[in-house]
Amino acid sequence: MTLTELQALHELPFFALLTRAHAVHERHFPDGKIQLCTLLSIKTGGCSEDCAYCAQSARYKTELESHVLLEREEVMLHARAAKDSGSTRFCMGAAWRGVRGGTARFEQVLDIVRDVAALNLEVCVTLGELGPAEAQQLREAGVTAYNHNLDTSPEHYPNIVTSHTYQDRLRTIRNVQDAGISVCCGGILGISETITDRLRLLEIISNFNPAPESVPINSLMPMPGTPMADNPQVEPLDIVRMIACARIAVPTAKVRLSAGRSRLSDEAQTLCFFAGANSIFYGEKLLTTENPDAANDRALLANLGLLTLEPDTALAAPLADPALPASPVMPEQPAHANGATAACC
To answer: Looking at the 3D structure of the chain, how many domains does it have?
Structure first.
């Protein structure tokens, strides 16, 4: 979709937008099932990057307790518990700039991936930047999907991160797609962006070829010690609008209601499900912030009559459309209202 098309969508009356998004959702996901995912931080803090929203950056004085890469046995305890609680995708995040093949830590991650995959769980990892060889090794080890968020528009991105570029992120996504791994790619609301930034993000993601398998929509949980510690909370209806736009823009992707869900009422989450969200992160922690109680989540889904999705470890990555250019593509735009231009154009 184009930015102009997305702006017209976003400006629709609220119920008109939700009605349209729900129709798209029912057409592509007629069973209406919700995927339960669990996210574990396997290496926390000490990251060399300067993402302004992130408590894991070594550049900020936060209260986050850092830890080195967890041992395989400890990760497996969490993975088994996630499976027992109903999760079908186990996501592992490491606070690194990236990984390099042949290193001890990457070999340790590969061993962990193989063991988690053996539990009949979908395996998603987020390890920072990846080269083509590393992406291929992850696929061979059993990785189902790779998460690498774009966070925001390319125009606003230099205001949020300066230690790597937007193009660096797009390059990793291309390497993941070339290896045949599904891409999980979304953004964050509440990081001082404009509505245009949000829609520009969706414009870029919607033009991926192949399409992303999932699109997480996060809202900022301001962390003490970070440059965005005092940012205001995102309005719940703004989150619902973004979910609806994401559902229409990327109709075949799972739209994941991600960070910030703990601040949403049951009623707001219900609107998100109606608008097209069909995946939640489930369990005690979402990397460094709290997550709603699993029992409350189960009760809400049961009250809404929503069933949960079974694991699909044989999940094939979406296929590219040969009639379209390979992704990622980044449509050019003029300078933004906030004065920034893309650092990677």
So the answer is: 1
In a domain, 311, yes or no: no
Burial class, 31, CB count within 10 angstroms (exposed 0-12 / middle 13-18 / buried 19+): exposed
From first to last of the 345 residues of the chain, give the pLDDT tens digit. 999 999 999 999 999 999 999 999 999 999 999 999 999 999 887 787 888 888 878 787 877 777 788 999 999 999 999 998 889 999 998 888 788 888 999 999 999 999 999 999 999 999 999 999 999 999 999 999 999 999 999 999 999 999 989 999 999 999 999 999 999 999 999 999 999 999 999 999 999 999 999 999 999 998 899 999 999 999 999 999 999 999 999 999 999 999 889 899 999 999 999 999 999 988 655 444 455 578 889 999 999 999 999 877 777 788 888 888 877 655 555 443 333 333 232
Which residues have a catalytic role annotated?
47, 51, 54, 91, 124, 184, 256
Cα–Cα distance for residue pair 205/254, rounded to 1 Å: 13
45 in a structural domain:
yes
Is 123 among the domain residues? yes
The CATH number covering residue 8 comes to 3.20.20.70
Residue type, 305: G
Look up the domain containing 115 and give its range: 3-302
Angle between helices 3-10 and 236-249 (to 10 degrees): 140
Q: Is 128 inside a domain boundary?
A: yes
Give me the DSSP letters along 44-110.
BS-BS---TT-TTBTTS--SPPPB-PPPHHHHHHHHHHHHHTT-SEEEEEE--SB--TTSHHHHHHH
